[in-house]
Amino acid sequence: MQTQLVVDYGACSEAGRKPVNQDAEGGLIPAAPTLSSKGVAFAIADGISSSDVSDQASRIAITRFLDDYYHTPIEWSVKSSVQHVLLAINSWLNAQTFRSPHRFDKNRGFVCTFSALVIKSRMVHIFHLGDTRIYRVRASNLAKLTEDHRFWGEDNKSYLARALGMSPHLDIDYSSHAVEVGDTYLLMSDGVYEHLQAHEMLVSLQSTLNLNDLCKHWVDLAHQRGSTDNLTVSAIRVLALGEHDVDSLYQEMLALPFAPSLEEGKVLDGYYLLRALHHSHRSHVYLARDEATGTQVVLKFPATDLSSTPEALQRFYLEEWIAKRINHRSVLRPFISQRQRQFLYSAMHYVPGQTLQQWMFDHPNPPLEKVRHIVTQIANALEAFHRLEMVYQDLQPQNIIIDEDDNITIIDFGAVSVAGLAEMYAQTEETHLVGTIQYAAPELFIGDLATAQSDIFALGAITYQLLTGRLPYGTEVSKVKHGRDQSQLYYREIRYEQPGFPAWVDDTIARAVHPLPEKRYALPSEFAFDLRKPNPIFLKIRRTALIERNPLAFWKGLSLLLVFVILLMANTLVINNQNTCAKFEQAAQKECIAFMKNMDGNVKSTKESRKNYIKQ
After folding, report:
1. Helix (DSSP H) and strand (DSSP E) numbers for the chain
2. Boundary (domain end) residue, out of 243, 261, 296
3. Is residue 1 part of a domain?
4. Residue 312 has pLDDT above 90, yes or no
5. Helices (H), 341-438
């Protein structure tokens, strides 16, 4: 039998020497399957003595936290679920203070400190603000897992720096840690922990097995030592951990047998098999008709080869599980039948049309407005996944059906990652590339986990392909092996091959497929919006270096410039040599003339001398 998470829980909360107990604590250990999907939750809150209503704030914070957390979508991660809940609680408390006579004095309003932990699968998630504390005891070692949010004033007194309801904006500490069997977690208010020593706590844990008695002992001990504050302690001891808690979500489905031999014309569970649509080593897909309603449906059967791989079967079941949680016109819907299922398969509504891949073959040069229409639908469908903390991971034209009215439907959820379920495999799941390589984002090739920005990259790549018939980086993305390789990817602008293409649309697509995920759009809808309306940033003077816009043109141009410079230098050298020679010739001519004149003068002088000699 599958082992599930098992914990022991005890608590004690008393007013102590105060007339009113402004502390509150609580915990919830749900039954399966909620135990697997959401885990166990515990919390402690401490009101502030300056407020007459902080005891209400503490009780409301604990009650609403435990109730609202278990009503958050199963698809959300623990972190996201708790943060959404605490944001709502904080806003409500702050609003109550604003409506009260103490709207301008937060120290008299609906304010309390808050610390909580959630244990799900093999991880503990810590949430904290204020000066309550959470400790962990493991192997006789006591570790404080939270930091006190206090500051010291000039009067040498400490004051709360953070608390629920203190501000419209919530700043909460979050951390997560691996859990081990035997771990004990302690939640304490300052009225208790300020009067206990670490070694005393460890000795008490070793000598007392009943957690309620243990918490009562510490409360009494703090009171005896003069504590003037309220006194609250909670203790949680981990007795067992599930190997894979998520398995409980699949037990009913996996208990079903594989379908017998499949063939057209056969009736199976009230479905008449019309024709085969697809066969692979992983699944067999048939178009069928529901005999009760006449509705055409698509039945997907796992291949018998998957019988020896439980993880693949779980992934198969997840497809229908995910489809039931996405309610969007552009996402494939499951077919709901009241008949008891006798075999292992998934049933989806049939969507007539062709794949976007085939549509691109048939429409090699679609108008920009039609591309916008298609991309906007895909973006809106992706956002439906992302709102539930799901990452599609395998967005490609083959997984998109387009009908004769250009309406699209995203199909095939086999690669979808669900944050709430991924946490259950946090200690065992290996990171590997999921989806089609051609549309995978660069960060996935260096081992990073897929995010919403990875889906946006794939959407941008599909947009580029719709407009050009090519991918923005060709096959270069699959060659990325290290983070530095991402900077070597250069986006080739569409307008260099299509001169009339709007530059601002080019910049929009370039941002969607940026090599770095943090430089891409935050939401698919933002990308779709910028495709229709120019982003002011992109309308500014474009100063992008040519090497980034078109590296081939850059190197060709640089080579041509170098050739020109060399020729210019050679020509200048020839001219300089010619000028030098001319100068030498002129100088030689001048020297020769001067020499001849000098010789002629000497001859004349000699003749005059002879004449004078003869006369004498």
Report:
1. 18, 22
2. 243
3. no
4. no
5. 356-362, 368-387, 419-422
